[in-house]
Write a structure and sequence with these properties.
It is a single chain. This protein has 633 residues and is mostly beta strands. 6% of the residues lie in helices and 42% in strands. It has 4 helices and 51 strands. It has a 27-stranded mixed β-sheet that branches. The N terminus is likely disordered.
Length: 633
């Protein structure tokens, strides 16, 4: 009888020590440890995982008053792997809020959740299998002298927090702290705390917090959205920010640094919306939509940055700021508009301030930059793209237009220093009728340009400055000794904020030169392979295309507004005449125009395969200025 009793006493002990695997509902009416998220996390920290673990949040609210203790700290538990992940998300159909509040007037809340050297953690705010944001995490700390965040990705000694996936959430701060303090949505650095539970933001990550994914989150009332703090010797790698929302229409809730990364590599920042950025603090006036210090191997692509406002002149204002040692960066297909300084300060909208001795191999391509003004006088002006320093920089197919009046020197492209500059197929416009307006203002010698050509320059005052004012295009061409194919034409755009080409733009159309690095435009539409348009938008004469596969057309029979792409054998005797907007014959494919038949092309012809024109067969190209490459037999 005693043995039986002993067996029953041991069973609960064995159950408690078992590693977790499967789904666990976290609900206040459940038994410990699944009555609070704090207790559930403590359990997995203690016993580890034997398989994938999902904590399903079933209550509406998780807070101090419901038994939570903040920050909820997830440590490196046993059994974790790329398969044995821990997921925290709302239960099916539930909308959940986690609110962390300070317990006294001097001990702050550094974070709602801290990943303290933890790996393979997923915070998914969706309550089903979609992308709706059904989980709100709020740092409600009222201790105003504390540096704090909502989510904290923290290295623990030599152990980085890796493979952290944060998606479909709302990250919010309820109460703003002192202006100079950290108030972020997601902070990645070390786990070091200072006095009063203050995050030590001067302590960089002590290990690589690698592979953090931040997707489809909304950041509310934070000063810094995502802040990655690494050292030059222990860089953070493989961070991915995609489809997040930063900014506000309420001035007191606007961020000043939505995205900041220092000492990072192999990262992507794509498809994010940054709308409504402000700094009116004269004591700490830093402001930038995206800031990258010392980065390598990255893409900043298809982001929208708008309504960036600085009301002081104590510091330079940016939409994108790239500084320090940079290698193999790509900044492309971004739309930047309404960048304003009302405090007489300097604006450098997209600024490159890079190490002058390192070959950056920096590509800036297919960007829209427009509507940039400052009230600055004397030396405080505005620029669209600013090359402050750097080596090996490529500017291809950008549309940069300063639309408003300026009081001082302003330029669509301002080059203060730099070497090995390659500037091709851009639009640089400045319509200011006040101050001293330039398309390009350059204090570097003409020898700094590897290439500068096929650009459109227009200005109400001077085309450029290079050793002196160059008022006309001819003056500028003389100064650069290049730019022989550049033009001085004012294109027609959809609007100030939308630099897509509109109307016919006859004097502007097809004036660029093909670049193999840039086969598509800002909308990822194919560029002409013979004579692309300058700027970020390729103004396609053809509405769409149809591809012949040897049997059928993919999009119906080509017409005068539909491009024909031959990707299979085509014989007009068997398949009929062709009338098309443009004609492309792919490599290894053959188009045969037989006797008495014709192919009529309105615009360009590109022959990479074979074009055979038999006796009495006809090829007609209607536009005298259209391009043709390849040969017919």
């Amino acid at each position: 009888m005693k043995k039986i009793l002993l067996l029953f006493l041991l069973l609960p002990f064995i159950g408690i020590s078992q590693a977790l695997s499967g789904n666990y509902i976290i609900k206040s009416t459940n038994a410990t440890p699944f009555n609070t998220l704090t207790n559930a996390v403590a359990r997995i920290n203690s016993v580890g995982a034997a398989g994938p673990v999902v904590f399903l949040l079933d209550d509406t609210t998780y807070s101090n008053t419901t038994g939570e203790t903040f920050p909820i700290i997830i440590t490196q538990f046993t059994g974790t792997s790329a398969t044995n992940t821990l997921t925290i998300k709302p239960n099916i159909g539930k909308t959940v809020t986690i609110t962390a509040t300070n317990t006294n007037g001097f001990t702050g809340v550094p974070a709602v959740i801290e990943f303290n050297g933890a790996d393979n953690i997923i915070i998914d705010g969706n309550n089903a299998t979609g992308t709706t944001r059904n989980l709100t995490l709020i740092n409600n700390d009222a201790v105003n002298f504390i540096d704090r965040t909502v989510l904290w990705v923290a290295s623990n000694g030599a152990n980085g927090a890796t493979n952290i996936d944060i998606k479909n959430t709302i990250l919010k701060s309820n109460i703003r702290n002192q202006q100079a303090r950290q108030l972020s949505g997601i902070y990645s650095g070390s786990n070091e705390l200072g006095l009063n539970n203050n995050i030590n933001i001067n302590a960089t990550a002590t290990a690589n917090n690698a592979t953090t994914k931040i997707t489809n989150n909304e950041f509310i009332n934070v000063r810094q959205g995502v802040y990655i703090n690494s050292s030059a010797t222990l860089k953070t790698s493989k961070t991915a920010l995609e489809s997040n929302i930063f900014g506000s229409t309420i001035n007191t809730e606007k961020p000043s640094l939505p995205i900041y990364m220092i000492n990072t590599n192999d990262f992507t920042i794509t498809n994010n919306v940054i709308n409504g950025v402000l700094n009116d603090n004269t004591g700490n006036p830093s402001i930038s939509g995206i800031t990258i210090e010392n980065g390598s191997n990255y893409n900043i692509k298809r982001n929208t940055i708008s309504n960036v406002i600085l009301t002081t002149n104590h510091i330079i204002q940016y939409a994108i700021f790239i500084s320090g040692t940079q290698t193999n960066g790509v900044i492309s297909e971004n739309k930047i508009t309404n960048i304003k300084n009302t405090g007489n300060g300097i604006i450098r909208t997209l600024s490159l301030q890079m190490n002058a001795t390192t070959s950056a191999n920096m590509l800036v391509a297919n960007n829209f930059i427009s509507d940039i003004t400052t009230t600055g006088t004397t030396t405080n002006g505005a620029s669209g793209i600013q090359i402050q320093s750097g080596r090996n920089i490529k500017l291809y197919h950008n549309s940069v237009v300063l639309n408003g009046n300026q009081n001082n020197i302003s330029a669509a492209l301002n080059i203060n220093a730099g070497t090995e500059l390659d500037i091709i197929n851009n639009i640089f416009g400045n319509t200011s009728t006040t101050g001293t307006a330039y398309s390009v203002y350059s204090t570097v010698a003409a020898s700094s340009f590897l290439n500068i050509d096929y650009n459109d320059y227009y200005s109400a005052r001077h085309i450029g400055f290079l050793g002196g004012n160059r008022t006309t295009l001819a003056n500028w061409q003389t100064a650069t000794t290049k730019d022989r194919n550049s033009i001085n034409v004012i294109p027609t755009f959809v609007s100030i904020a939308d630099l897509h080409l509109s109307g016919t733009n006859a004097a502007f159309d097809d004036k660029g030169t093909p670049l193999t690095l840039i086969p598509t435009d800002i909308d990822e539409e194919s560029r002409s392979i013979t004579a692309p348009d300058m700027g970020a938008d390729e103004y396609n004469k053809c509405k769409t295309s149809s591809t012949w596969n040897g049997t059928n057309w993919s999009n119906g029979t080509p017409t005068i507004s539909i491009k024909a792409i031959i990707n299979g054998t085509y014989n007009t005797q068997n398949h009929g005449n062709i009338t098309t907007c443009e004609l492309v014959i792919n490599t290894g494919k053959t188009l045969t125009i037989t006797s008495g038949k014709f192919v009529e092309v309105q615009n360009d012809i590109a022959i990479f395969g074979n074009l055979i024109i038999e006796n009495n067969g006809s090829l007609v190209q209607n536009d005298d200025e259209a391009k043709s490459i390849g040969n017919a037999t």
